[in-house]
What does this fold into?
Amino acid sequence: MMSERPVVVVGAGLAGLAAATELARAGLVVLVVDQAQAAGGAVHRQPLEGVAAVASAAQARRWSGVMAGVQAQGARITLRCGTRFGGVDHTGAVLLSGALNALIRPRALVLAVGAREAVQPRPGWTLPGVMTAGAIQTRIKTLAEAPPGRVLLAGSGPLLLAVGAEMCRLGRPPVALIEAARPLQPLAALGLPLAYLAEAAGYLARLLRARVPLYWGAHLTRIETGEAGLLAHFDTSKGPRRIGAEVIGLHDGIRPNDAGLTASAALPVLRLGDCREALGARAALADGSAGGAALAARLLGRAAPPAAPELDRQRAAQARLARIYAHDGAARLADLPDDTVICRCEMRTLADLRALGPAPTARALRLDGRFAMGACQGRFCAEWVGRIIAPTTAPQPIGATRWPTRPIAVADLLAASEDLEGETE
Amino acid sequence: MSGVIHWQGRALPYRAGESVASALLRAGVFSFGRAATGQTLALFCGIGQCQGCLIREGGRVTEACLLACRDGMVLTPAAGGDDV
It folds into this structure.
């Protein structure tokens, strides 16, 4: 594939491409892979051919700047989309499947696989039509199209405002937006970077113009199948309410997408951007550039470059944002009905979790409870399992991280192995 | 619209580059069948993390949210038949 052993970068979003650019600028050969059909990542997900972009002018400028940086490196950067990262083993072999199906041994591995959404379990959250707010945003960015039917947005976090506002712009406002926090406190917002405030004000203006009912300090408590579509029940300060929808977009925050990301004794493995620390787009870009430059220096035996101060600024801004969006929604986990599904993969319930006793070990949670043992590797249940069994401490991972990052077809594994046998070390 | 995919005997249009999950959703197909564990398979995270939207194409089960539509593609529920 390449005569020189490449550095492999997983993820063609802001962090991954910024890192690739710095590595290539230092003279290294870089292979960037991404599971999506085009570069962009979650923030700069590109519209399909013939679809009008929904990105703002500022967003479009940032992305074209990043792509220009990549293109300036010419053949030193190869980008392969539609390609999934399966994992890295103790020998330093990296498994790729999809458009590029190979087992390769890079000089170093950069993981820039972004963030995932947290979604708190609620009765009915496994029903078809219930999805993450991010899944709705992905649709909007690639197709400039909202999901069919009435759409309800619920949970907590700035993403709900962004998705709601984008739907308004498409002429398809959500039927309501239910936010657990009360983020509209002018004093708390002081100290946020102006760019954050301008963005939020723009979203709110769109939602208000479209007369979308906005519920603050309200909690979506359960979802059931209604006579037509889904029926969502939620608590407000004025008592319980219900609302019908075909699609419900849930979102309870952003977390690093770090499931299945292991280290390897055989080569440097670096995490950059949101999968290391979820601080948003500006930080991901800065972290990618700084991390890529530092890795290049390490591989080439040069002096390490200085750290990026932008990261500290974004960390402070995100901490302030987290305080503004603080709410007691997690306390509701204790009052969930026994048959509430906690693990979506294997439909393990709160009753199954309670049956393991008051303080189950990670081993008991996995082997007896089968929590975090399903195909998603605990991405969507581990945090809540932790909060339920130990409400006052920060949730811990359930057991050690293992690759693969996702189920891999035996056919892909076999095809990739043949590749490696043909290589000379 | 640039072609059709086949789901349960229905021919559904799609846009070039669109995912299978996305095209099914537009056609009002919210459930993609049921997993062996009882979970109804459906679009959830949209970015290949939750494994909740698995679907079968030929001999292969994969995430409908990451699978790009191709003209004439035949899709069936993930359960039933052996995975390769």
User: Anything to note?
Assistant: Chain A touches chain B through 47 residues (CB under 8 Å).
